[in-house]
């Protein structure tokens, strides 16, 4: 229970915890950053770890001179790329085992074929956009692996999405994270970085469900 309480407090006050860690342990903060981002993107059961808010705070700490911007971004990029590759590989490994359940109630061949077709057609942009959506960011590469999206195509969009995600949010934090207004409302900004993309993802999923269950038009 204490671990859960600490995790929630860390997510909501990542700025204070990360700054304290930098002061106490110095260069070890880069190892911590790698671990958090790799686990958040690479382990499908850990979608609740901080992502966007963490990158913004890292940029702000770099802007304040507490961390090195180039080194931080490099570590985060490697962690994000390797995390997605790990998640995709897990999906590719599990996928063939799932195919053996074709005659069971746990496997829907039609759903798999639809997912495969979707990822072959729209998988690239899905992987890129998912970077900016909590929870979706964790599950998208896993589903891409299960749906047997081509590894070369996945890797290209994985790298491109990671660059946009890490560099974009860290740079925003670097230039704007230490402005007085931003520091005053940082807790609200963190909540926004958590809730807004999540609500957009939920709305998109609801829309997709509604369209999928809508009755076909009469001939």
Automatic annotation (TrEMBL):
Major localization listed first in the record, in broad terms: membrane
Pfam annotation, one family: VTT_dom
Record's keyword terms, sorted: Cell membrane, Membrane, Transmembrane, Transmembrane helix
Subcellular location: Cell membrane
Keyword Membrane applies: yes
Membrane topology: Multi-pass membrane protein
Membrane-crossing residue ranges in chain numbering: 21-49, 55-82, 156-177, 189-206
Domain of life, source organism: Bacteria
Family membership: Belongs to the DedA family.
Protein's recorded name: Membrane-associated protein
Taxonomic source organism: Simplicispira metamorpha
């Amino acid at each position: 229970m204490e671990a859960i309480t600490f995790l929630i407090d860390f997510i909501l006050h990542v700025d204070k915890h990360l700054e304290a860690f930098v002061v106490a342990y110095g260069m070890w903060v880069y190892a911590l950053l790698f671990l958090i981002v790799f686990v958040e993107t690479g382990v499908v059961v850990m979608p609740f770890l901080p992502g966007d808010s963490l990158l913004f705070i890292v940029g702000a700490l770099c802007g304040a001179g507490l961390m090195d911007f180039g080194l931080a971004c490099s570590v985060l990029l490697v962690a994000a790329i390797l995390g997605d590759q790990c998640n995709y590989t897990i999906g590719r490994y599990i996928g063939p085992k799932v195919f053996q359940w074709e005659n069971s109630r746990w496997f829907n061949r039609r759903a798999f074929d639809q997912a495969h077709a979707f990822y072959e057609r729209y998988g690239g942009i899905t992987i890129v956009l998912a970077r900016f959506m909590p929870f979706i960011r964790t599950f998208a590469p896993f589903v891409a692996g299960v749906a047997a999206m081509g590894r070369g195509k996945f890797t290209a969009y994985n790298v491109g999405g990671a660059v946009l995600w890490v560099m974009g949010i860290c740079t925003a934090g670097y230039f704007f994270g230490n402005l007085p207004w931003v520091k005053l409302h940082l807790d609200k900004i963190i909540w926004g970085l958590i809730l807004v993309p999540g609500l957009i993802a939920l709305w998109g999923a609801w829309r997709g469900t509604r369209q999928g269950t809508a009755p076909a038009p009469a001939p």
